[in-house]
Every structure is written in structure tokens, then in C-alpha cells.
Amino acid sequence: MRPARPRSSLRDRAARVLDANWTGTSTVPSRTLYPHQWSWDSAFIAIGLRHVSPLRAQGELETLLAAQWGDGRIPHIVFNPAVAPDAYFPSPDFWRSSTAGRAAGAPASVQTSGIVQPPVHALAAWLVHRADPGLSRSRDFLARVYPALAAWHRYLLHRRDHGGAGLVSVIHPWEQGMDNSPCWDAPLRRVSPARAFRRADLEHGAAQDRPTDLDYGRYVRLASDYRDAEYADGSGELAAFAVEDPAFNALLAASEHALARIACELGAAGTARHARAERLTAALVRRLWDPEAGMFFCRDLRGGVEGEAGGGLVREYGISGLLPLILPTLPREVGRALVDTACGPHFGVGDLVRMAPSYDLLGPAFDPHRYWRGPAWFNTNWLLEHGLRLHGEHARAGRLRAAMLDVAGASDFAEYVDPRTGAGRGARGFGWTAALTLDLLAERTSR
To answer: Which residues form the Mannosylglycerate hydrolase MGH1-like glycoside hydrolase domain (predicted)?
Structure first.
């Protein structure tokens, strides 16, 4: 009798997903639903790719940075001209980056969107360098990406501080990355939805898992208004949607720390960047921390509350509010309270769920299947696992890591999963799910 063939290892399966999604210059999140290059996806993908091909991981980031605009922004989508224009909406014809974005320095040689995504890139570049320092130095990898990353951070810090308090504002839910979170419901109510648009996403995903037509219409309206204003920032008038988000700013602070390390590797001083990261951390606590709730909340700059300067806090428990745990200089009492919130009834980490949900288990809008309104995502859980470990919660981090690896394999590297059962939802063979699986599997990971 022929012996049974050994099952492929989880590492081999994850690597094959990244191979299947590789275009030759970058990695798509999904061959079906997301057939172009996405900004923060590529950063997370590079973090995983470094364990199987540091060269490809470097190329992933270099391809993205080649589409950077003259004002420093890194667009959230870089379009592949080989993909049919109607394969994804909003398409290049909607964004019109090379014309509408000309004043902001959009590149003429490649089509992109005009909005941004969370700044994970300097952190990714530093981790990719550490995976193979010899290769990195021989290619001058850090020397070539450092100016682009520094310009990216300058853009955010100088052009997007709409609240004037030292934090970056997002002007579209897609910029924050957690597109359909209930945290955006109140700010979005001010936005009149666009009426005419085509939803390519429903051709690849179930309608009950995706944003509603009303919300999608509001997303399209915000994007088209920004495009029609030639992607101008800092005009003195707040956008219809202007929100200070905890995760976006925490990732910027973490990437400032990484950029400081890159500067030191290149022979420059990193002190000023570490100091900037600590100022961002302090502003996060000052502006977005609610000690009674034990949670960071978004601040809606247009949603003023009587007696509360600079807009009002949106008191919805989204996973974004847990992610400042990734910051090393977070005050101890804040870190302790965040751990308690993560493991309490709102998120149930270690007890009620297999992976942390994207939104409050007790919230009125919780839905374990609908996009960012409850399902668990691998990138946010990867960040949470790192934050737990950073703050001394090694046992809890270890249990979360084990659950993530089990769920990734069982769900065929799903885009997102039911937080309680681990059942896969959305696309399968998803890029960052496979990449972060590789990182969690690595014996010596630089986290």
C-alpha cells in the first residue's frame, strides 16, 4: 500500500499564496476582488515576504514608492495597466490622478488613487532590512527608500493635521483602512451619497458581507469631491469627513520610531524622530484616550460636542482603539487598561473569541460577517499580538498567535473570519493573511 503523501506545511501553503498573487513587481491582495497594488497591504505583505524572499520584499516596497506623489503622499491604490479598467471600482478613470492630481505632483507614468492608507511602510522597510542586512546594504535599499518615507511622514504631519493638535486626520473611511467600521457611521451621516456608481465588489462577494449601497454612495461622494478639489489639503476648511483615528496615528508613531532606526543605520541621528514619535504618543493620549472607558476613541473634528474643543469623541469600541498597544512609550496605566479592555466583554480576547473582532461584541451594530463591522482581520490581530507581547502579556499573545495560525490554515487564508468560530469570509488566498502567517511562523521574527 502506497504511504500517504505528507500534507503541505502551513508555511509552504502561505508562500504559495504569495507566489500566486505576485505580478512580477508587486503582490495583489486578491486576484479576484483586489487585482491592483494596495498601500498598507503591500507593507504587511513585505513583512511576511522577507522570510521567503527579502529581495521580493524590498521590491514590493520599491514598486509602491515609485508611485509616490510630489507632495509626499503614497496613494492607497497603484493601478496595474494590464488589468481591465472595469475590474475594480473606483477605477483609474474615476480618480483621474494624472490630471486632477497634477498640482499635487501625481506621477504621469502610472495611474493611482488620490487618497492614502495607514503609514506602516517605514516599519515594514526596517523589518525587511533586518531580514537580510547584507543584501539590503549591497542594494542601498534603505538609502533609496529613506527620502521617500521621510517625505511621506512630512506630508501627513504637515498637511493632514486638520485638528491643529499634532495628530493626523483621515478624510475618507478608506484612508483609515477599516472601511465600513461603525466608528464612521456618525461622521458619514453628514455626507450626501452619490447616486450613480457601479459596484464591482458585489461581483466577487456576498452583498450581506459588504457595505450597503447607502454607505458606498457616501464613500464615492467623498472621493469625487476630493478629486474635484484637485486633491488639495489644508485649505483652511474642514472636509465633510475629518477624523483623528487611534490606529492611523499609532502606526505613524511606530513608523517614526522605525524611521529613526533607519536614519541611524544610514549614519544620521535618529533622536529627533524618536522625539516626534513620543510627541505623537502623547497627543494620542491627550486627544483620544478615555480613561473611564479604558479605550482610545476616534475624534470627529466636524462633530462638535458642547464644551469639547476640537470636535467630539466617537464612543464606539472599534479595534482601532486597541492598537496604540504597539507603542513602546505608552503610559503604563494606559497599556494596562487597554489590555483589560481587549480581554473584557467588548472584544473577548482569550475567552469569548478565537480572534479579536473588528468591532464591539456588545455593540448595536455588531455583525460577525459584514465588512469591518465585527469580523476578525489578520493584520489588526497581528498588531494586537505584537502589542500584547510588548506590554508583557506573553501568555495571552501566545494564545492569540496560536489561534491565528490555526484559523489561517483552516480558512484557506481568508480575507477575514467570524471572530467566534474562525469561519472564513470574503476572498480566499488573501495576501496579508498569508504574509502575516509567515511572520508568525518564523522562529526568529523581528517584532
So the answer is: 34-433
